[in-house]
Amino acid sequence: MSLLGRKKTKQRSSANNGPRRMRDDIIKESSAFQLNRTISSFRKQQDEVSERSIHHKRQDLQKAFLQRIGMSLAALVVLILLSFQLSLVISIQTPDTASGQQAATYKKILIDYYASRPAERFKPFLNQDALHQYFLSHVPEVKTVRIETFGAGMATAKLTFRQPLAQWSSGEKMYFVDESGVTFERNYFAPPKLTVKDQSGAPLSGGQEVVNQRFLSFLGQAVSQFAKNNLSVSEIVLPQDTVRQVLFLIEGKGYAVKMTVDRAAVAQVDQAVKAMRFIDERRLRPEYLDVRVDQRVFYK
């Protein structure tokens, strides 16, 4: 009984192994199929990534190449323009024949300025204030400089000049002074009738602002107010060691009128005119009239 039972068990287990083997084979085939499919799809994706990266690299190389070409062309254009500007042909335009005779002098000043500032040969880089100061320090009679370019390598400098308000003498030097108070030596206009004799001892040189606008305005108002009263100022004197007092010499009068810049010029002139009438009526011969104090006149 026992022997038969054992034999039946062996037969049953061998019979059961058949389906198991079939399932294992199916699973192995299925696994192999899934594995092969995964590898092939991975390779396909990898190939696509490689193609895209190659395409991007080609685009980057093309962009870099085009950028180099663009930079080279831009550099070439700049060099061409620079060559034209470095060989800039400059002409000077002045308002009259007298100043035109000094055109070579003004041209040299402009060339020297460009030599010290090459970039300013290009008009967009021109520093107008620096150019004005350069001309003021070298040729102070020039009031304004305007640069106009015509095509490549052509430029014209249009100049205007200072018109003198008075002749200003300091020591042995004679200068002209314009309405801005700037002194200069070369004058292209008619000599002014008004002369200012500077005895203050302050140092003076061409191109210097010898007096401020307020002081010049004071002188102009005083001269104008004297003229309204039919009195002509022949000379103005700045006394020694002072910058607040002014002496006005009047034509036909043997004395000066002492005034101060701290009071209104018109009021002082009106005060002086009344005092002159008083002196003329009494035929006095003073050395000067002093109208610096309001409502009071002193004479000696």
UniProtKB/TrEMBL annotation:
<feature type="transmembrane region" description="Helical">
    <location>
        <begin position="65"/>
        <end position="84"/>
    </location>
</feature>
<keyword id="KW-0812">Transmembrane</keyword>
<keyword id="KW-1133">Transmembrane helix</keyword>
<keyword id="KW-0472">Membrane</keyword>
<protein>
    <recommendedName>
        <fullName>POTRA domain-containing protein</fullName>
    </recommendedName>
</protein>
<feature type="region of interest" description="Disordered">
    <location>
        <begin position="1"/>
        <end position="23"/>
    </location>
</feature>
<feature type="compositionally biased region" description="Basic residues">
    <location>
        <begin position="1"/>
        <end position="11"/>
    </location>
</feature>
